[in-house]
Amino acid sequence: MSFSVYRLVKNRHNKLYVAHKYLYRFYQTDNVFGYKKKPSSSYTVSKQVLQKRCNASNLYRLVEAYRKYGHRYSRVDPVSFAKFTSNDEELDVRRYGFENTQEIIDSLDGIVVGIPSSKVALGDVIDYLNKVYCTYIAAEFDYLESEEEREWFADQLESLANSTIDIPTKRTILTLLIQSEAFDNFLAKKFSSVKRYGAEGSENMMTVFHEIFQSAAKDNLEQIVLAMPHRGRLNLLTGLLRYPPAQMFYKLRGNPDFPEKYQCNGDVLSHLVSSTNLEFDDKSIHVSLLFNPSHLEAVNPVSMGKTRAKQLTCQDGDYGHNKLWGDKILNVQVHGDAALTGQGINQECLELSGVPHFEIGGTVHLVVNNQVGFTTPADRGRSSRYCTDLAKIVSAPVIHVNGDHPEEVLKATRLACNYQRRFRKDVFINMNCFRKWGHNEMDDPTFTNPALYSVINSRRSVPQLYRSKLEGEEVISDKECDELYDEYFDWLNEELKAADEWEAEDSYFKEQWQNISQPDEAITIWDTGIASDVMTFVGLKSVHYPSNFAIHPTIARGHVNNRLTRITDGKGIDWSTAEALAVGSLLLEGHNVRISGQDVGRGTFSQRHGMLVDQETNSIYIPLNDMQPNQGYFEIANSILSEEAVLGFEYGMSIENPNNLIVWEAQFGDFFNGAQVIFDTFISSGEAKWLAQSGLTVLLPHGYDGAGPEHSSARIERFLQLTDSKEDRVDAETVNMQVCQPSTPAQYFHLLRRQMIRPFRKPLIVITPKTLLRDPECVSNFAEMERGTHFNPVIGDRKVSPANVTRVLLTSGRHYYTLDKERQSVGIDDTAIVRVESFCPFPTSELLAELSLYGNAKVFIWCQEEPQNMGAWSFIKRRFENLIGKPIKFSGRPTAATPATGVGKIHTQQQRDLITIPFVM
C-alpha cells in the first residue's frame, strides 16, 4: 500500500478539525442551536456524510499524533537504556474517536493520496504510520515554524519509508564498515597502548560521511568544511579522506609529522587534519577537516567562520541581493551527545546560524550518540529527553536513527542533506550507537556503567551485523567479506612498513597563503604610512552619506562635522578617525576588513559610527564601502551577546585568507574571559600546534575610570602569560602573538595596517582606551601617519632635557597622560616618562636606545594602574632586569583579588596615589 498520510486532509484540515466537535455533536444529539431534526429519508445520507467527515478529522488528528509523538515509540536505541518513558495513550486510536483498528476509512475526495481502492482499513493506516514514524528512523519536526517545512519533511519521510537501497550502495556501505573495523583492529594489535579513540560501536558514522560527501558533490557544491571531535577521527582520515596511514604510523612512533624547517610543536594523534579532493561520479568535492583541540565543541564556531570566509571569497552568499548562502560551501559539524548538551558554545553557535554577517546557509550536524559522556551515563548527563533538544531553539529538525542499521542511517543522512539544501537551515542527525570501550581504549567502563556494558559486551559489532544481513540477502558472500577485511588489513601492514621512510611534505602556505611564511629571528620595521592625499580622501569618504539619507542629528553635528574639520586641518586626529583611515586605506589596497562584536557599528563608547542608520527607513549605510569601484569589502558585524562562539567564528575567518583583516572587539576588555578557551587553544597556540597562521586582531577596551571590578581591566597579565616571549632572551617576530597598548591614534593606525602589510600573520591583542577616545591630548597629525612612518614599540620623552633626568618612569597606555599631567602641574623636570607601546615582542633594543639618553638616571620605576599581581608588572620586571640590566621598582595598586574597587572614594584616593608616589620614590 502506498499513500501519503500527510496529505490526508491537506488544505482542509484546519476547517475539519474545528468543525469536528460540532459535527460530532450534531450526529449524537437531536438539538443543535435550538433546532429539532426532522425525520426524513435524507437524514440517513446526511448522517453518513457527517460520519465520513468525522472520520477524516479523527484520522488527521491521529496522523498528527504520530508526527508529534512517533519518535517516542521508535526503535532508535541499539542498547535501550532510556531515562524517559512515553504515555501509551498518545497513539491510542480510541483517543481519536475510533473504536478499533478494523474500522474502514473512506477515501473521500482524494484526501488520502495513493490508496488503491476507495476504502482502507484503519489497521493498514496504522501499520503504515508505524513504518514511517516509529521504526529505526524517527524525526522531530512538528515544532518547525514553517508549514512548508513541516509538509516537506513529512512527505520526505514517507518517501524514505517506501524507498530501497540498491545493491552497489549496500556493498559500498559494507566495505566502509569492514574497513573501519579492520583499521581499529589493526591499531589495537600494532599499537596496543595508544589511545586511538576508535569508532567501534559508531562505525556507521562512515556511512554518514560518505553520503554527505557524495550528496554534496551531486548537488554541485565545491567544498565542505568539517569539524569533528576525536572519536572516529582516524577512521575517517584513512578511510575516506585519503590521509596516508604511513604518515599516521610515523607519528605514532613518536616522530614529528611536519617539515623540520618550520617552528612547530605539533599536536597529538587525535587532532590530525586533512584537506583533500574526493571524486564521486565524475564530480569533485574538496573536504577540509579542521584541527581540533581537546576542548569539546570549541572548533564548531571556527568551522563556521572558515565556511563564511570561503563563501565570501567565492561570492557564495548575500551581498544585499537576497541570494542564499551556501551554494558552493557546506559546513558539517560532528558532536558527542554529552558535549552537545553540556557545552554552552553550541547554543551560541546555533543562535549565530541565522544572524546577518554570521549565517552560512545551514549546517548539517551529526551527533555520534554513544550514550556516555566520559564516564557519565546519559540519564545523568542531561535533563532533557534528547541530547538534541537544543536544536529546537532555532527550529532545526532532528532525525533520530539507530546506528545498528546502516541503510536507515544512509536514509536519515539523505533526508538531512536534502533539507539543508532546500531550506538552508541547520539540521541534526542523532545517530544512536554505543562505545565499545571506555573513554579511551585504556579505560574500563564497567567501573561506572556495568549494566550498559553488560549489554554492549554481549553483542556483535555493527559491521558484523550488517555483513550477516547482506550475506542473507545474497548481496555478498562470506568469502568476499573476508577478502575485503584481509585486503585492507594487508594494505595497512604495507603502510606500516613504509612508515620509517615517510617524509613530511611541505603542504603549508599554499594557494592563497603562498606569499605568507614564518618570520625570521629578527624584528623588522615596515613602512605602514600612506600619502596625505589618500588620508584626506578616505577621511572625507568615511563620513560621506547620500543626500536623501536621514542621518541622526547628533551624529551629523558631532561625529561628522568634527571629523571633517580634523581631516581638513590634517591634525587633531582622534582614535576613531585614525581607525577609519587605516581601514579605508586597506580597502583601497584591495584587502577586505571585518570588525565584529557587540554594537561595533556604533562602538561601545559611541566613537566609531562606521555604519549609519537612516532615522526614517532604518536602512544601513556604510560610507567606507562606497569610496571607489573594485575596492575591498568592509563588513561591520554586530554580533549576538556572545564571546566564545563569536571570537571562534572570527578566528575561523582569519585562518582562511591572509588578505582579510579580521577584527574582534570586546564590549569591555575583561569580557574576553567568556572566550578564554578560544584564546588558549586556538589564538595563542594555533601556529605552534598546526602551523595555522592567523592575523586576527582583538581590541580590548581598558582603563581605570571608576567603573568597578568588571569594567576596568582587560587582564593584560593573562595575555602576556600566554605569549612565548623569553624573559632571558631578546624577542623576535617569531613570538606566538603580539600584545600592544598604543597610546596615540597614529600608533593604533600603524598597528592595524601592519597586520596586512607584513609577509606573515600573527594574532594581535590591542589594549585600547576608553576615556582617551575623546581626550584632546590623545590626538595625532597626518605627519605621524604619512609615508615613511611606522609603529614605534617605544615612545621616548622629549619634554624634558635628558641631562637633567635622574628618574625614569616607564608606563603604557592612558597612564602616561595622567602622569604627564601631574608632572606638568607640579613642575617636575628631572623625571622622564617613557612609553612601552609593545609588550610582546618585548622592545629590548628600543628601550636600550632610549634609556641610553639618560646617563644620570639612577631610579627606574614601572608605573601601572593595575594591582601589583596584575597588569604587565611581572612580565616587565624580569625582562627589564635581565635584558636591560637595571633594577626596576613598582608603582601601582597593591595586590588585590579584583582588578578594581567598586567604592568611589577608594578609587579616587588610589588614583591620587598612582600619580604622586612615583615622583617621590
Automatic annotation (TrEMBL):
It comes from the Eukaryota. Residues 573-775 form the Transketolase-like pyrimidine-binding domain. SUPFAM superfamilies: Thiamin diphosphate-binding fold (THDP-binding) (SSF52518). InterPro entries: 2oxoglutarate_DH_E1 (IPR011603), DH_E1 (IPR001017), KGD_C_sf (IPR042179), ODO-1/KGD_C (IPR031717), THDP-binding (IPR029061), Transketolase-like_Pyr-bd (IPR005475). Its cofactor is thiamine diphosphate. The keyword Transit peptide applies. Keywords: Oxidoreductase, Thiamine pyrophosphate, Transit peptide. It holds the Pfam family Transket_pyr. Coiled coil: none annotated. The keyword Protease does not apply. GO terms for molecular function: oxidoreductase activity, acting on the aldehyde or oxo group of donors, disulfide as acceptor; thiamine pyrophosphate binding. PANTHER family: 2-OXOADIPATE DEHYDROGENASE COMPLEX COMPONENT E1, 2-OXOGLUTARATE DEHYDROGENASE. Belongs to the alpha-ketoglutarate dehydrogenase family. This is Transketolase-like pyrimidine-binding domain-containing protein. It comes from Rhynchophorus ferrugineus (Red palm weevil).
